[in-house]
Description:
Layout: H1 2-18, H2 23-35, H3 37-60, H4 62-67, H5 69-95, H6 111-120, H7 125-138, H8 146-177, H9 182-205, H10 210-220
Helix pairs in contact: 1-8, 2-3, 2-8, 3-6, 3-7, 3-8, 5-9, 7-10
Amino acid sequence: MNFVRVFFLGLLISFMGSLPLGTLNIAAMQIAIGQGIRSAMLFSLGSLLAEMVYVRLSLVAMDWVRRQKLLLRLLDWLTLLIVTALALSSFYTAAQSEPAPNPLLGLSLPKVTLGFIMSALNPVQIPFWFGWSAVLFSRNVLLPIKSQYYFYILGIGCGTFLGNCIFIFGGQYVASRIENNQQMLNWIIGGVFTFTALLQLYKIIRKKDTIQQIEEKVTRS
């Protein structure tokens, strides 16, 4: 029964964590609007695979990850660059007279690969899963047993996918409701990406980056 418990805990935590507006779920929504549900699903699959890798690392190599300060800082800056590029691409798409896909999200990469790369370069999830995994370990809900890890990680993947589906199908619904005004939606999405980029820059400047967040999560747990 404990395997079922950790599966559903992973699913619930991941699902709830996927609901706030973020780079990956908004990107999935924009792909669904511009390139179809199948492409968005493949993108989400790639992103959740990278997330599952991060969770696996957080379970078995917490100390090693915490020591990679240069790498984590580099990922913070790469995240800022990617989100800024997504914002500019969204504004560029919105400014076109004819509907067009976001240039960055329309790269000629398999959508699974694109989702994996964007998720791997997004360090926001690292402190999130460090914190939750540490809490579950401290309460003996999650035990250092490989079989439990697999159920926990599988639950996380399912939760992330379900959360992204809300944005994918929600984006399609919104797009169908505003049929001839997808440009407005692209302006809104560009605004969301701009806000996310500014928030990421603020965190870096205020030293609330990934390294600091990990240290805070570990201390609290």
